[in-house]
């Protein structure tokens, strides 16, 4: 299935919504191949797996690497994610050689694609993906705010 970025973000939002079913923060990610075909998708599964590295981005990148390229290079691919990647996910994105990162809501507390840090565009690194921020940002932010309000009993 081929998706444009807006449709891919819509799918990432669906995945994010589903993550709440098992108590995870609602973040979803989709990896598109160079031709726009969906290579992989995932939602946060830290709570589900008991794994601090089971962020949606990392899970989606791992799955995409199994079906594209030489086993780990995701050259020509786009990572679409509902929330700005953290330092771990931004690092994984750089190391996987993704060409483009598209995200919804900014993360001023932990974002590493321009908000707090800018790992993905750090000139000291050998790969710097293009970044597009703010795609369906309000939908992503609304989902996250509602989740954290419910977690805090507000």
Automatic annotation (TrEMBL):
Descriptive protein name: tRNA-specific adenosine deaminase
Record keywords, A-Z: Hydrolase, Metal-binding, tRNA processing, Zinc
Co-factor: note: Binds 1 zinc ion per subunit.
GO terms of biological process kind: tRNA wobble adenosine to inosine editing
Active site positions, chain numbering: 57
Residues reported in the UniProt entry to bind Zn(2+): 55, 86, 89
Cofactors demanded by this protein: Zn(2+)
Family: Belongs to the cytidine and deoxycytidylate deaminase family.
